[in-house]
Amino acid sequence: MQGEFLARPLTPDLWTDFEAVMGPQGACYGCWCTYFRMPAAERKEASAAEKKAFMKARVERQRPPGVIGYIDGEPFGWVQVGPRADVPNWNSPRTVSRPLEEADAEDPAVWAVSCFMMTNRRRGQGLSHALLGAAVQFARESGARLLEGCPMEQAKQSKSVSLFVGPSNIFAAAGFREVAQRKAGRPLMRLSLSGAV
Questions:
Q1: Is 144 within 8 Å of 164 (Cβ atoms)?
Q2: For residue 111, is it within any domain?
Q3: For 103, 125, 168, 178, which has the most beta carbons within 10 A of its beta carbon?
Q4: Backbone phi and psi for residue 170, each to the nearest 5 degrees, phi listed first
Q5: From the Swiss-Prot or TrEMBL record, what is one GO molecular function term (predicted)?
């Protein structure tokens, strides 16, 4: 890793740093990290500007929805992490990330690492490990009991935008273990933060 890494939870005063990571288009075709948050029909109709406003309002009124990563003070990365209930589309019965137990979707102590984003020039440098480590620390400090991810086992290249869910190797390296696989190449992985499984 080049430079000094630092991570900070996204609070309203850091909004411009979030904008810097998302870029002028809002990352992933103007998503602004709303994919798992907004109802699908509403998201499809919303413009990039409306998605940005939705996310900004979310940041302003509730606990930080994730963590921003910095190298030498420059914002470069984002990882969305929080209670499963905060990302309702992650819990849909039709998704590969659906919970093992239905109650987990509303349990404030069961958290999800649902999205990663990095600026172009920082991709492919192994920084996802640092971002995931920061997400684990934030979840632990916030009282999470379980932390889950639904990463991708393979992508055509390490810089692929399709890796917004994260590569499975970084989850394995952080101690997550597979608890289900509803689709080939997309394991649901879990880390216990309290000694429970």
A1: no
A2: yes
A3: 168
A4: -75, -30
A5: acyltransferase activity, transferring groups other than amino-acyl groups
